[in-house]
Amino acid sequence: MTTQTNQPKVILITGASSGIGEATVRLLAAQGHQLVIGARRTERLAALAEEIQASGGSVRYRALDVTSATDVNAFAQFALDAFGRIDVIVNNAGVMPCRP
Fold it and tell me: Does 99 fall in a domain?
């Protein structure tokens, strides 16, 4: 059986606006993957997407609040509408519970 590991994947990344998520976006974009990135800070997502597209990468972005199941489902549907499939999800977003 032959596997093709060099085929570009459609990869969704949550928490993509900074830190590990942003670094992951940059790495996977440089490897030629098609990305759908999400986070709450859309201004940072827009700037990152613009930078990647200017370098020839394929990326779409969308506001995403991972505490909302409806929002997560809409994020996945956005990816399906954009690229027709989902190969990988990098669930990087962190959730910090607030306590007194």
Answer: no
Distance CA(11)–CA(28), nearest Å, equals: 8
Q: Which residue has the tokens 């597209």?
A: 53
Structural domain contains residue 58: yes
Residue 1 pLDDT grade (very low, low, confident, very high; cuts 50, 70, 90): very low
Question: What are the tokens at 46?
Answer: 């827009």
Taking CA atoms, 42 is separated from 3, 18, 47, 48, in Å, by 36, 11, 9, 10
Task: Name the 3-class secondary structure at 42.
Answer: helix
Domain that holds residue 15: 10-90
**Helix, strand, or coil here: 93?**
coil
pLDDT digits (tens, 9 = 90+) for 77-87: 999 999 999 99
> For the whole prediction, is pTM greater than 0.85?
yes
